[in-house]
């Protein structure tokens, strides 16, 4: 998946043909490990090149956070609770993905805070929810591509688009704990970088606080994903501009703002300290 789009597409087309000759993906039920490898190959390709998944969603590997036992769940942040009432310009399906990511993050946090390891069932439920959520993310991101390009040409800031990109980076870096140097992450990071207008502080000047808080979270994820890359400075600078508009006064308030959207302590805490220090507020 680290080659060109053309070579990657040829390899995926060949893989699809081989899988179909064996009776399609569900026919590999004798080996869930092989199914997972094929599914992840599909996900990696689609993430890198912003394509729809080639293979169908497998029911026996899929699940939602709605199936989590109550001890794995936590209340939704106010922004996610109110959803379209607070942020009517964000697609409803984007909120569904954010809901899932919040509950997955809560479940992981709960499992990490226990003296005993999570049970096999709990780990399986989390894994199934991650799989289903990423599948939905890939479908939605690929359907947004034409709109995003059109709006970029007309210099319109599409909050749904950048939120999807940041949510996908969050899923990979915070939840899956994948290395940020992978090509698929660099591609997403570059897309996010290009989608943020240079005049961001002017573009959001009249926005409500909830929208500004979402923008701050998006820029924070961009800065965290850009650790070690040249565009890190861009995200930190834009973050500083929006924080001034929202009048976030200190690191504690900064962390509270981030927690109001999505937060996973093992990933966000360190980056929160580092990014705040770099902003020099």
From TrEMBL:
Pfam families the record matches: Fungal_trans_2
InterPro entries linked: Fun_TF
Top-level taxon of the source organism: Eukaryota
Record's protein name: Uncharacterized protein
Protein species of origin: Tothia fuscella
Phylogenetic classification of the source organism: Eukaryota, Fungi, Dikarya, Ascomycota, Pezizomycotina
